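Priority: medium. Attachment 1 of 2:
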Protein backbone atom coordinates (compact mmCIF):
# COMPACT_ATOMS: atom_id res chain seq x y z
CA UNK A 1 0.00 0.00 0.00
CA UNK A 2 1.35 3.36 -1.07
CA UNK A 3 1.81 5.69 1.85
CA UNK A 4 1.65 8.76 -0.46
CA UNK A 5 -2.05 8.30 -1.07
CA UNK A 6 -4.48 10.35 0.99
CA UNK A 7 -7.66 8.58 1.83
CA UNK A 8 -10.65 10.90 2.25
CA UNK A 9 -13.76 9.61 3.81
CA UNK A 10 -16.59 10.24 1.37
CA UNK A 11 -19.45 12.44 2.52
CA UNK A 12 -22.74 10.88 3.13
CA UNK A 13 -25.90 11.94 1.42
CA UNK A 14 -27.06 13.83 4.51
CA UNK A 15 -23.78 15.74 4.64
CA UNK A 16 -24.03 16.64 0.98
CA UNK A 17 -27.59 17.85 1.46
CA UNK A 18 -26.53 19.85 4.49
CA UNK A 19 -23.88 21.66 2.43
CA UNK A 20 -26.65 22.94 0.17
CA UNK A 21 -28.52 24.53 3.12
CA UNK A 22 -28.19 28.34 2.96
CA UNK A 23 -28.38 28.77 6.72
CA UNK A 24 -25.58 26.26 7.27
CA UNK A 25 -23.45 27.87 4.57
CA UNK A 26 -23.93 31.32 6.16
CA UNK A 27 -23.13 30.03 9.66
CA UNK A 28 -20.01 28.25 8.44
CA UNK A 29 -18.78 31.37 6.65
CA UNK A 30 -19.42 33.47 9.76
CA UNK A 31 -17.37 31.01 11.82
CA UNK A 32 -14.54 31.06 9.25
CA UNK A 33 -14.27 34.82 8.73
CA UNK A 34 -11.16 36.69 9.83
CA UNK A 35 -10.14 40.32 10.27
CA UNK A 36 -12.01 43.15 11.98
CA UNK A 37 -15.38 41.41 11.88
CA UNK A 38 -14.09 38.16 13.44
CA UNK A 39 -15.34 37.86 17.02
CA UNK A 40 -13.84 34.49 17.87
CA UNK A 41 -17.24 33.13 18.82
CA UNK A 42 -19.35 30.45 17.31
CA UNK A 43 -22.46 31.64 15.52
CA UNK A 44 -24.52 29.43 17.74
CA UNK A 45 -23.23 31.25 20.79
CA UNK A 46 -24.03 34.58 19.13
CA UNK A 47 -27.60 33.48 18.49
CA UNK A 48 -28.38 31.68 21.74
CA UNK A 49 -26.24 33.81 24.06
CA UNK A 50 -26.31 37.24 22.45
CA UNK A 51 -24.95 40.16 24.54
CA UNK A 52 -27.47 42.84 25.66
CA UNK A 53 -26.06 45.45 23.25
CA UNK A 54 -26.62 43.14 20.28
CA UNK A 55 -29.65 43.34 18.02
CA UNK A 56 -30.15 39.60 18.55
CA UNK A 57 -30.66 40.01 22.27
CA UNK A 58 -34.14 39.28 23.60
CA UNK A 59 -35.04 39.58 27.28
CA UNK A 60 -36.06 36.38 29.02
CA UNK A 61 -39.53 37.71 29.83
CA UNK A 62 -40.18 38.24 26.09
CA UNK A 63 -38.69 35.04 24.71
CA UNK A 64 -41.69 32.90 25.53
CA UNK A 65 -44.33 35.59 25.04
CA UNK A 66 -46.31 33.92 22.27
CA UNK A 67 -49.70 35.46 22.98
CA UNK A 68 -50.65 37.42 19.85
CA UNK A 69 -53.49 39.28 21.59
CA UNK A 70 -51.13 40.67 24.24
CA UNK A 71 -48.54 41.69 21.66
CA UNK A 72 -51.19 43.29 19.47
CA UNK A 73 -52.66 45.14 22.45
CA UNK A 74 -49.22 46.40 23.42
CA UNK A 75 -48.64 47.57 19.84
CA UNK A 76 -52.00 49.33 19.68
CA UNK A 77 -51.37 50.98 23.05
CA UNK A 78 -48.01 52.20 21.83
CA UNK A 79 -49.57 53.63 18.65
CA UNK A 80 -52.34 55.24 20.69
CA UNK A 81 -49.80 56.90 23.00
CA UNK A 82 -47.87 58.20 19.98
CA UNK A 83 -51.06 59.61 18.41
CA UNK A 84 -52.05 61.29 21.67
CA UNK A 85 -48.59 62.82 22.00
CA UNK A 86 -48.84 64.19 18.45
CA UNK A 87 -52.30 65.61 19.20
CA UNK A 88 -51.07 67.18 22.43
CA UNK A 89 -48.10 68.71 20.63
CA UNK A 90 -50.36 70.17 17.95
CA UNK A 91 -52.77 71.44 20.61
CA UNK A 92 -49.98 73.22 22.48
CA UNK A 93 -48.64 74.70 19.25
CA UNK A 94 -52.12 75.95 18.32
CA UNK A 95 -52.64 77.35 21.81
CA UNK A 96 -49.33 79.19 21.67
CA UNK A 97 -50.18 80.51 18.20
CA UNK A 98 -53.61 81.73 19.32
CA UNK A 99 -52.12 83.31 22.44
CA UNK A 100 -49.56 85.23 20.40
CA UNK A 101 -52.26 86.29 17.91
CA UNK A 102 -54.57 87.66 20.60
CA UNK A 103 -51.68 89.39 22.37
CA UNK A 104 -50.83 91.08 19.08
CA UNK A 105 -54.49 92.12 18.62
CA UNK A 106 -54.59 93.54 22.15
CA UNK A 107 -51.42 95.55 21.45
CA UNK A 108 -52.98 96.96 18.27
CA UNK A 109 -56.18 97.90 20.11
CA UNK A 110 -54.24 99.48 22.98
CA UNK A 111 -52.18 101.43 20.47
CA UNK A 112 -55.34 102.73 18.78
CA UNK A 113 -56.86 103.73 22.15
CA UNK A 114 -53.65 105.55 23.14
CA UNK A 115 -53.55 107.27 19.76
CA UNK A 116 -57.15 108.43 20.06
CA UNK A 117 -56.57 109.71 23.59
CA UNK A 118 -53.53 111.63 22.38
CA UNK A 119 -55.54 113.15 19.54
CA UNK A 120 -58.38 114.05 21.89
CA UNK A 121 -56.24 115.60 24.61
CA UNK A 122 -53.41 117.23 22.67
CA UNK A 123 -54.43 117.57 19.04
CA UNK A 124 -57.58 118.84 17.36
CA UNK A 125 -58.63 115.49 15.92
CA UNK A 126 -61.42 113.86 17.89
CA UNK A 127 -62.72 117.14 19.30
CA UNK A 128 -66.13 118.43 18.34
CA UNK A 129 -66.83 122.16 17.85
CA UNK A 130 -63.39 123.11 19.16
CA UNK A 131 -61.01 125.65 17.66
CA UNK A 132 -57.51 124.78 16.65
CA UNK A 133 -56.19 127.44 19.06
CA UNK A 134 -57.33 128.68 22.47
CA UNK A 135 -58.91 131.73 20.87
CA UNK A 136 -62.50 132.60 20.04
CA UNK A 137 -62.70 134.16 16.56
CA UNK A 138 -66.18 135.54 17.26
CA UNK A 139 -65.59 137.35 20.55
CA UNK A 140 -61.89 137.96 19.79
CA UNK A 141 -60.97 136.82 23.29
CA UNK A 142 -58.52 134.25 24.57
CA UNK A 143 -59.75 131.21 26.45
CA UNK A 144 -59.39 131.35 30.21
CA UNK A 145 -57.13 128.30 30.25
CA UNK A 146 -53.43 127.59 30.38
CA UNK A 147 -53.40 127.27 26.60
CA UNK A 148 -55.18 130.62 26.29
CA UNK A 149 -52.72 132.34 28.64
CA UNK A 150 -49.80 130.83 26.78
CA UNK A 151 -51.19 132.00 23.43
CA UNK A 152 -51.81 135.52 24.84
CA UNK A 153 -48.20 135.68 26.07
CA UNK A 154 -46.85 134.58 22.69
CA UNK A 155 -48.94 137.19 20.88
CA UNK A 156 -47.87 139.95 23.30
CA UNK A 157 -44.21 139.09 22.79
CA UNK A 158 -44.71 139.15 19.03
CA UNK A 159 -46.38 142.59 19.25
CA UNK A 160 -43.55 143.93 21.42
CA UNK A 161 -41.00 142.79 18.85
CA UNK A 162 -43.01 144.51 16.13
CA UNK A 163 -43.08 147.82 18.07
CA UNK A 164 -39.34 147.60 18.78
CA UNK A 165 -38.59 147.01 15.12
CA UNK A 166 -40.88 149.86 14.06
CA UNK A 167 -39.19 152.19 16.57
CA UNK A 168 -35.77 151.18 15.24
CA UNK A 169 -36.81 151.91 11.65
CA UNK A 170 -38.44 155.18 12.67
CA UNK A 171 -35.36 156.38 14.55
CA UNK A 172 -33.07 155.63 11.60
CA UNK A 173 -35.40 156.89 8.85
CA UNK A 174 -36.98 160.04 10.39
CA UNK A 175 -35.84 163.06 12.38
CA UNK A 176 -36.95 164.11 15.84
CA UNK A 177 -39.23 166.88 14.47
CA UNK A 178 -41.81 167.34 11.74
CA UNK A 179 -40.12 168.81 8.66
CA UNK A 180 -43.35 170.49 7.53
CA UNK A 181 -44.56 172.10 10.75
CA UNK A 182 -41.30 172.09 12.69
CA UNK A 183 -43.00 170.56 15.74
CA UNK A 184 -41.44 167.85 17.90
CA UNK A 185 -42.45 164.33 16.83
CA UNK A 186 -43.76 161.95 19.53
CA UNK A 187 -42.70 158.83 17.67
CA UNK A 188 -44.17 155.36 18.17
CA UNK A 189 -44.34 155.46 21.94
CA UNK A 190 -47.85 156.89 21.85
CA UNK A 191 -49.32 153.94 19.97
CA UNK A 192 -47.91 151.22 22.25
CA UNK A 193 -50.71 149.75 24.44
CA UNK A 194 -50.42 150.41 28.15
CA UNK A 195 -50.17 146.74 29.14
CA UNK A 196 -47.23 146.29 26.74
CA UNK A 197 -45.29 149.43 27.72
CA UNK A 198 -43.14 147.74 30.45
CA UNK A 199 -42.02 145.00 28.08
CA UNK A 200 -41.54 147.53 25.28
CA UNK A 201 -39.34 149.75 27.45
CA UNK A 202 -37.33 146.75 28.63
CA UNK A 203 -36.68 145.60 25.07
CA UNK A 204 -35.59 149.10 24.04
CA UNK A 205 -33.21 149.22 26.99
CA UNK A 206 -31.73 145.84 26.05
CA UNK A 207 -31.34 146.99 22.43
CA UNK A 208 -29.48 150.17 23.52
CA UNK A 209 -27.17 148.13 25.76
CA UNK A 210 -26.35 145.78 22.89
CA UNK A 211 -25.65 148.74 20.59
CA UNK A 212 -23.32 150.30 23.20
CA UNK A 213 -21.43 147.02 23.58
CA UNK A 214 -20.94 146.76 19.80
CA UNK A 215 -19.85 150.42 19.66
CA UNK A 216 -17.17 149.95 22.34
CA UNK A 217 -15.95 146.76 20.74
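Attachment 2 of 2:
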Amino acid sequence: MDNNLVNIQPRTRQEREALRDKDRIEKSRINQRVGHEARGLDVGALIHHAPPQSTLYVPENERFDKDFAVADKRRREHEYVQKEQIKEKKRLEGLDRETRKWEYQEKIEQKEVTKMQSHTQQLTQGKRNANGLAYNPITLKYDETDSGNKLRLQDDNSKVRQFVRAQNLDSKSNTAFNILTGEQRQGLDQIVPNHLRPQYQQRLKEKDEQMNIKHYQ
